[in-house]
Description:
Elements: H1 2-22, E1 25-34, E2 38-43, E3 55-72, E4 84-88, E5 99-107, E6 110-119, H2 121-124
Parallel strand pairs: 3-6
Antiparallel strand pairs: 1-2, 1-5, 2-3, 3-4, 5-6
Amino acid sequence: MRIWSIGLVVASWFALAAVGALAVERHSGVVTKVSDTQIAIDEMGVWKGPETKPVRRTFEVTSSTRIARVQRAVKGDNRWPGGWASEPTKLSDVHVGDFVTVSVEPHGGRSVAIEIEALHAGANAPN
């Protein structure tokens, strides 16, 4: 009986961890505004014809938000030739016009960024 109870507790913990992981959302788009506490992007959603327009999304940035600059490299972070390499940076290094992917944890009506990966398109454009 004791082993069954421990197994149930462990299984419940894994189930809660899986549900928590599902709560993370990823949004990608072009930066339209950056401040000390927020980042706004225009994200293109599902194509619904010629009337489809980007959606403006604003996310809160906290002191625990991880921010990285990504770029093509001879060998990326995963050691693949031509892969992506990232290095930590500050929010002040993210600019309007950069392409970003923001990982978000919804908190009630707020969207708090847990990670921002920024790509400066000009430096990565094909030759």
